[in-house]
Design brief:
Layout: E1 13-16, E2 20-22, E3 25-33, E4 40-49, E5 58-69, E6 78-80, E7 84-89, E8 96-104, H1 105-110, H2 112-115, E9 123-131, E10 165-169, E11 172-176, H3 178-184, H4 186-193, E12 202-204, H5 210-222, H6 230-243, H7 247-259, H8 266-275, H9 281-291, H10 293-299, H11 314-329, H12 336-347, H13 354-358, H14 360-368
Parallel strand pairs: 10-12
Antiparallel strand pairs: 1-3, 2-3, 3-4, 4-8, 5-6, 5-7, 5-9, 10-11
Helix pairs in contact: 3-4, 6-7, 6-8, 8-9, 12-14
Protein name: BTB domain-containing protein
Organism: Daphnia pulex
Pfam families: BTB (PF00651)
Length: about 375
């Protein structure tokens, strides 16, 4: 077993980047991952030398390198090595691993829109190497890759000099390009060209958050997302993607927000997915609620669904009403037959241990498996 706790010989997931070649040596990155979300992602720099004319070759090299997660975040995830000496043997076709880079899965998933946008993890590597026959003392360290270079398109974004349409919303004015908007959404095309073949130069949009809209425009323009969090941003961003039918962005959002689900926000996320027709996120929220129902109930002030006897106290009935309120919160979009059953349950007087078992739990389970 590797010190990371990863089964290197039989990992649950092993990925290898394409090779890149330099002066007789092939280089690549290897990634090892376990399904356990508390385990780390292991990344190695791997190298091997080619065999020329079927002759066995051995090379002794010195290497210095930096590996990092490519992101716009300010708290960078990176690993810089000291000088490593390696003997590369062309008969060892699996290559030689060096420089373990350990990345916390929990950290990646805590900020998915920065570290793994659209569920893609991008690893960068900068390295310097030399043959051992050369003077190793002069081998420089790789340049610090941070801060990453800004997007080359940034100077064009929301700049009136380079754009041909103004969008006004929430007291703010944004500058954009007609063809970029129309390429992203048929709704934008209809807004711009519905009245004139030359298109409108000004568009007024009501009832959306201007801060969220600026973020959506930036994504349309350069495919860059800010550090989104489900509690703060899901409602506003899904509202905009629904209004303008930005299906590609909606797909990216639901992947990231799903990774942020927890007992305190799962019901809110489910209701948002229902409200804005986020088809793939809705069943995932229901699955999360089904698998983590005890934690969700506890987070809403319930240790369990209360069972009231005929001799129940006022406090018992108060807890039962909390149970009803929680179930009702996640059943706003129930089919009529289930809402009817919930209504009957609320009108009945609980006088046996079987009351909750026969009414509340089947209602919740039926909802989860719809």
């Amino acid at each position: 077993m590797h010190p990371l706790g990863l089964g290197v010989k039989q990992p649950e997931l092993a990925l290898r980047s394409p090779d890149f070649y330099s002066n007789g040596i092939f280089w690549s990155l290897r990634l090892y991952l376990k399904e356990d979300p508390k385990s780390d992602v292991g990344v190695f720099l791997q190298s091997y030398c080619d065999s020329r004319n079927s002759q066995t070759r051995k090379l002794e090299i010195a290497v210095k390198f930096t590996m990092y997660v490519v992101t716009t975040a300010t708290d960078n995830i990176c690993h810089s090595s000291g000088q490593e000496l390696q003997t590369l043997d062309s008969t060892f076709i699996l290559g030689h691993k060096m420089g373990c880079f350990s990345i916390s899965q929990e950290k990646l998933m805590s900020r998915p829109f920065l570290y793994i946008p659209d569920n893609v993890l991008t690893i960068g590597c900068e390295l310097n190497w030399a043959f051992q026959s050369q003077n190793m003392g002069t081998l420089p360290s790789p340049k610090n890759p941070f801060p990453l270079k800004p997007n080359s398109l940034d100077k064009f974004f929301n700049n009136p000099k380079f754009n041909d349409v103004k969008i006004s919303t929430g007291g703010k004015v944004f500058h954009a390009t007609k063809w970029v908007l129309c390429d992203a959404s048929d709704v934008f095309e209809q807004l711009i060209f519905s009245e004139s073949p030359d298109g409108r130069n000004t568009i007024n949009i009501e009832d959306i958050n201007p801060v969220a809209f600026e973020g959506v425009l930036r994504y349309i323009f350069s495919k860059v997302l800010p550090d989104l969090h489900i509690e703060e941003h899901a409602e506003d961003w899904f509202k905009i993607t629904h209004k303008f039918e930005l299906h590609a962005l909606q797909n990216v959002l639901q992947k990231g927000f799903f990774l942020q689900l927890k007992p305190s926000n799962a019901i809110m996320c489910l209701k948002t997915a229902d409200r804005y027709s986020v088809a793939d996120l809705r069943p995932k929220c229901k699955q999360y609620l089904r698998e983590n129902w005890n934690e969700v109930a506890a987070n809403h002030g319930l240790e369990k669904f209360t069972i009231c006897h005929a001799t129940a106290t006022v406090e018992d009935y108060a807890e039962l009403l909390k149970s009803f309120a929680l179930v009702n919160e996640i059943t706003e979009s129930f089919p009529g037959r289930i809402k009817s059953r919930l209504f009957k349950a609320r009108k009945s007087k609980p006088d046996s241990d079987s009351f909750i078992a026969f009414f509340i739990k089947p209602i919740v389970l039926e909802f989860f498996y719809l």
